[in-house]
Input
Amino acid sequence: MAKIGRNDLCSCGSGKKYKRCCMARDEMAAREKLAATTTTAIAAAQHDPHLCDDCNEQLDAAANAVLALIDARKFDAAEQAAHDVLARFPAVHDGYECLGRLYQAKGDQRQAAECYRKVIAFARNEPHLYDPEFVGHFQALIDRLEPAESMGALPPNPRDI
Output
């Protein structure tokens, strides 16, 4: 199904433009869905036992600040903050998760998937620190972002043969 443009007629049949009808509701539903998956992933991940409690609290605060900037659509500030998380806490996955969420919000599926692959790499390198569903959650995100790649190569276009 093609994405509805802001100025297209709304698919609900009201006769109004999408931006004046159902767009706000649809965007809110998408934000709620993203927040739910973020909460699930954060709940599944454990704090790094190599970090002290204070460092874990700082990491949580920094990652939550990035997510808040993404929700506010302040993408430049969110990107800088995510890179700061990576610089301050290079031994944990959170910076890459933040960048993945940012790229996903910006519509850059390829970059988001790359970040999520790095998150998975952290979990695979130290599986004792992560719940079993953690890798599956991020793999499912990658599969949704890159559906054609997860199913293999697309069949050739008959016009190209």
